[in-house]
Amino acid sequence: MSSVAAAASRPTNFRYERGLHWPAPDLWLDPELRKPLAFVSHGHSDHCRPHRQAVATPATAVFYRQRTRRRDVIELPFGQPHQFGQYELELFPAGHILGSAQAQVRGPDGQTVVYTGDFRLKHGPAVEPCEVRRCDVLVMECTYGQPHYRFPAVEAVADELHDCVSRCLESGRTPLVLAYALGKGQEALALLTNAGFEVLVQEQIYTVAQQYERLGVPLGDYALLSPETVQDIRNKVILAPPHRRRSDPLVGRLKRVQSFFLSGWAADPAARYRFGADYLLPLSDHADCTDLLSYVEQAQPRVVYTVHGDGTFAGILRSQGIPAYHLPDNAYQPGLFDEPVASTSA
Fold first, then answer.
1. Which among 126, 258, 251, 129 is positioned nearest to 185, based on CA atoms?
2. Is CATH 3.60.15.10 correct for 3-149+286-327?
3. How confident is the model at residue 329 (pLDDT cuts 50, 70, 90)?
4. Is the dihedral of CA 261, 266, 269, 271 positive or negative?
5. Cα gap 165→236, rounded to integer Å
6. Please, are residues 124 and 289 in contact by the beta-carbon 8 Å criterion?
């Protein structure tokens, strides 16, 4: 057996079945299906399942309860360990959206497993800065794990957004900035108000923005896009979720608009046509390939498992001599990781 395979084949005491699972305390991390006890890394809908009992940061608990109507949540602030049987769970910031958390699980043998969930190393407004911790086993999210995904600093995207919006206003058109309702929308709002723009905010983003402010995150001066405020949109920016561009009657009735979609997919040449926007700006709340490499370098795990993406990043790590294996989204691993879970793709 090679040294890489030997290092990876040591037991890690958890299994992967559309989520990480420690059988002894029956604790799940970000499972795709409803479970008796589950850590919820952040408030996006694809991570919020109506578990019997959830574990989340106080901010994530707000969004989780709103989405699922479930009330039984163990609110676990960053840096406060909580014991589940013989295993200790501690949460620390992921830098993805407000309240997003990574999970560190320490077993009775002292071995640490870190699960990143969705994370971003680049620091943006309206979110806690991401932390990196050294660990024995790293399970990391790799949506943008291919080498061509290299995002500019948030400040650079903010400057580009400022220039685009300014030119749009100077031309007599209305800038329509498209960003997802939770997380990206509030980040875009902070960037726009910090730049001095007057912003009218579609109801979904507005509602979440109000929650952000109640949680202690100021987002500047802005107003709700309403039947009254839409009467005068001269020199104003409209901020809305992409799916509301046509379904929201107030957004859909806008004339002479120029649309700007904020997404990491802007790194794909054909993305503008796929998303139907005039411009795409590469503002992502995920780590790009460079940040993924930096994270591994800082964490110094003895083995890495990747989730999401297509397995390319695990192959990149193996080419550098780092034990790394991709866990496909539909993978079912019936037992503990006593042997490495090898990907068929390099």
1. 126
2. yes
3. low
4. negative
5. 10
6. no
Residue 191 neighbours by CB distance under 10 Å: 28
Q: What is the spatial distance between Cα 291 and Cα 313, in angstroms, rounded to a whole number?
A: 11
Would you say 259 and 277 are in contact if contact means Cβ atoms under 8 Å apart?
yes
Considering only the top CATH level, what class is 154-281?
Answer: alpha beta
Quote the pTM value: 0.90
For 179, phi then psi, to 5°, come to: -155, 150
Three-state DSSP class for 274? helix
Banded model confidence at residue 276, pLDDT cuts 50, 70, 90 = confident
What pLDDT shows up at residue 39?
A: 98
Select from 263, 267, 266 the least CA-distant residue to 149: 267
Q: What tens digit of pLDDT does each residue of 229-252 get?
A: 999 999 999 999 998 888 889 998
Question: How many beta carbons lie within 10 A of that of residue 112, not counting itself?
Answer: 18
Whether 48 and 69 have beta carbons less than 8 Å apart is answered as: no
What per-residue confidence (pLDDT) applies to 344? 27
Return the domain boundaries, the chain.
3-149+286-327, 154-281
